[in-house]
Design brief:
The protein is α+β, with helices and mostly antiparallel strands and about 70 residues long. It has one domain: SH3 type barrels (Roll), CATH 2.30.30.140. About 20% of the residues lie in helices and about 45% in strands. The chain has a five-stranded antiparallel β-sheet with strand order 3-2-1-4-5, covered by helices on one side. The protein is globular.
Length: about 70
């Protein structure tokens, strides 16, 4: 099973995004997404931001992960 992680973008530089996922920060590739800005929410899989999501999507994902 593949699991994506919802996270907030806090910075972008040279095709990489710094994300915050429940307080943990890490750097991931942002090259697949256009018009990505700090404050956006993304779905991350295998170190790559694969999709922009809404704040509501992020909240729902957090709730589901807590239930697991």
């Amino acid at each position: 099973m593949c699991v994506g992680l919802a996270a907030k973008v806090v910075g972008i530089k040279n095709g990489m995004a710094v994300i915050d996922a429940s307080g943990a920060r890490r750097e991931v590739s942002a090259e697949l997404l256009q018009d990505l800005e700090p404050g956006d929410y993304v779905m991350v899989h295998a170190g790559i931001a694969i999709a922009k999501i809404t704040d509501d999507d992020e909240d729902e994902t957090d709730e589901l992960m807590e239930m697991l």
